[in-house]
Amino acid sequence: MKTLLLRATLALSAVAALPLSAASPARPNVVIFLVDDMGVMDTSVPFLTDAAGRPQRHPLNEYYRTPNMERLASRGVRFSNFNAMSVCSPTRIAIATGQNAARHRTTNWIQPDNDNAGPKGPPQWNWRGLRKGDVTLASVLRSGGYRTIHVGKGHFGPRASEGADPLNLGFDVNVGGASIGAPATYYGKRDYAVGKNAKRSAAAVPGLERYHGTDTFLTDALTLEANRHIGDAVRDGKPFFLNLAHYAVHSPFDADPRFAANYAQSGKPAAAQAFATLIEGMDKSLGDLLDHLERLGVAENTVVFFLGDNGSDAPLGHQHAVACAAPLRGKKGSHYEGGVRVPFLAAWAKPAPASPVQARLPIAVGAGYFPDGSRPGWRAVAGWSRGRRAAARVAAGRPAGPGSFGCLPDALSPRAAPVGLFHDLPGRRLEGDLPLLSGRGFGRFPLSVVPPGGGPLRVGRSRGQAPRGVAADDAGDGRAA
Hints:
By secondary structure, the protein is an alpha/beta fold. The protein has 2 domains: 3-360, 3-Layer(aba) Sandwich (Alkaline Phosphatase, subunit A); 376-481, no CATH class. Helix content is 23%, strand content 11%. Strand 9 (421-425) and strand 10 (428-433) form a beta hairpin. The two termini are 35 Å apart. 54% of the residues are buried.
């Protein structure tokens, strides 16, 4: 599940709750940019890698246009093997609470009006979702002085429940959040209420009356509202938490006319072309948000987490075929990789190594994302690693070996970051990781830290222990390779 994101957001909530002195840096603004039904292949950013960790482009990466995702990826960390639940509500509640689905028991999507457990549903399944008073990321941040803003899809509980309204879940502002899991339509001319399918008439998106009767596409309306509310927070001198949860790219596949021409000659079915326009419209929203943060002068103080809530729903083939998320099998609702692997990016909206705020949560710039497919120009340093041999393997472009930990800085590289970490475990590889966004054990076993521009390397051990699974005499000598 989303262990890394949950650790990161909970760590952020702890940082946000710390008392501030006059000399303390400002608290970071937090943005979760959540895309509905977006899988790992629904983007021009290559998330899949080869055995050595090099990004690999596939035909779907050439089909979709997401330049602002590429922009965000170049500013932070791209996670190549990130998984969610195969449907939306379990993932959304997990992000909100820090609990996995086995614990919060909402293990399926929530049907707004009827308990959809089914005859073979799990015992004690939680159809009612979240309740007023549940501890959520929003409520923790609000108690720390944040303005908490929800814009877009909620789907935290059924229609008559407390969880249907994000205002009951720790948010100060709610625009568009309700029990519905999909919009009736994306078109403002139809008031986001009367779609192609009459059964969706109850799926009107609330809170957008100012855009009714206009040509404003739903994705754009939500972006305008998000920007308006974070602007208010900045003007009021408040740190903010924005949960921008787009209805895109969920069906109905209403084509966004702003981008339809880009796919007209693709040879793909009309629904697949419309889906691609929803992807591109979502990406424009990300760009508009990043631009707005810069205009407000708060980009250096805002951390952005970008992810999908379940695998792709691209209308490109059967749900069990290698089609919708090719070369992965399956799509949304299936337990193949195509149904659970999602994009995840973590970055400061504007990296600034000298920022005291960013120093409290360092994120390696460009880690794991190089559009040309090259490897990072980092030197290997044996910190918490399997000594000089592991460092030499990484420097040569090979995996360090199972259970290895270390630090990979290079002040001479234009892609260098103040701190870069590597972590190799059997079967997976995470590059450019960092203590709060990491795999097993980073919070307990600090690694080497190299200041911006290089400098002396200091390696410390936590209570004299090596990470679990790494022998003490194989933990590395702490000298540069």
